[in-house]
Write a structure and sequence with these properties.
Number of strands: 0
Number of helices: 7
Number of domains: 2
Strand content: under 5%
CATH class of the largest domain: Mainly Alpha
Largest sheet: none
Distance between the termini: 47 Å
CATH architecture of the largest domain: Up-down Bundle
Shape: globular
Amino acid sequence: MDLTADFFSLFELPKSFRISLSELDSRYRDIQAQVHPDRFVSAGDAERRLSMQWATHANEAYQTLKKPLERAKYLLHQAGHDIQAENNTAMPVDFLMEQMEWREAVMDARSGGDHHELEHLHNRLRGDINARYDELADLFDQDDHSAATELVRRLMFLEKLLYEIDDALASLEE
């Protein structure tokens, strides 16, 4: 195993947005079984340290590849495309207006204690996000990294909004 290998190579997966999560899970468990620090308790310092490095690398790779947004960011980074999330927040006006409408609806449902409406918003947004991930997979298949970068930036907004809806649901359940 090579600590400098990209995350896809580490798990012997194709370098693609579309991956088998069950294969990822299985290969992650296989690697952890080989490198987990508990297996190296009685080993020397160097072996224990290397085991820890491997386990950390495998964990980071697994966490990145199992989440579609993180996997997309990783693929773009590997292709040399910076999504500029920190310093490029420009978005089309229609997308920003849509975001404002969503946030207002969430705020209204939250303040009104409307659990049913929050569930409805969650399901609608989850469907929209899933459709956009399908679109993103197609963009990666076509090697259209510029359009994929733009879509990833939008998905970052949408995933954050989904988190806010889930947070609102959780606060109503308390």
